[in-house]
Known about the structure:
By secondary structure, the protein is mainly alpha-helical. It has one domain (2-334). The protein has helices at 2-25, 32-39, 50-76, 81-102, 110-121, 129-148, 150-157, 161-164, 182-204, 211-220, 230-251, 257-274, 279-297, 302-334. Helix 1 (2-25) runs antiparallel to helix 2 (32-39), helix 2 packs parallel to helix 6 (129-148) and helix 9 packs antiparallel against helix 10 (211-220). The longest helix has 33 residues, at 302-334. It is globular, with a radius of gyration of 20 Å.
Amino acid sequence: MRAFHFEVASRAALSVALPLVVLLLTDHLDWAAYAAFGAMTSLFGRNEPYRVRMRTVTVAALLMLTFITFALVLAVAQAPLFVLTLGLVAVLAVGIIVASTAGLFPATPVFFVFGYAVVAQLPTPGDEFWPRFLVAVAAASFAWTLTMSGWLLRRVAGERSDALFKNLLYGALVRPAAYRDRRVWFSVAQNVVGALLAGGLAMAAGIGHPYWAVVSVVAVLPPPGAAHSVSRAFHRIIGTAIGVVIAGLVLVPGPPVFVLIAVIAICQFGAEMLIGRHYGAALLFVTPLALTVVHLTSPAPVHTLLIDRVIETTLGGGIALAIVLLVQAAARRRKPRPPLS
């Protein structure tokens, strides 16, 4: 099991680090977001047999690139808030339906929403549409190749593969009729309501980076059919708060860019090692990772960045927690009472 987690974490770290190094060497580090979100392709198909993995990773890559392209178009057009909001609703709906249909894991649209929200708000000159798009395509293609590379490694290892790698036993459940499942549409509805409420409150309060409140809601709410967990909301809030402290220790001294790229790679590795074991512990790495990527893409005063992250995560986590509690209460009311003796 440890060898398997190490394999997954290593390819995830490499998939994000190398594109960032290329951008650094070509003096285009302000395009880091496109490389980072394209590289998230490597987060899918963790332990699926390769024939299945090829399908799910391809679907995930194409979906991520579709949303990045959509967000780039809106950014170039300087779309108004109303259009960006409609776009967010579309990303949530399409992301959940496609993930449920193709059996993607992670099964939530959190990475797609994060990518859309960040890219859509980045100032984008019209003549930079294609270069930025191609950075995302190149990063996604590289991540796809790394994710599938285990097939060749296992072939080379031959009989030793059982000792080097975990057997790939879990296939993705394809559900062509997922769009007719009420649970899928219920998940879409609660994600849309929670995201719009969190984003609206964050903007009304004048907090910077309101998409973090939106992402926090989507990260806490469960995929269609899964149990609603109160603990996940608390893990999100507490893990993020501690992660912000860690990020502050990294960002406040103002280290050189190559150190920040190394931090991103280390955090990606740590997050993948822990995400299946303890969500709150994984956020100790996820939070510095996200903050460092945003800092590279659009530098801002570090203390403002850290405070916004804590406030908006607490806001989004609180709204998601309220939705979870309401759903649990409704489920208890629907549960039939035992007959009186």
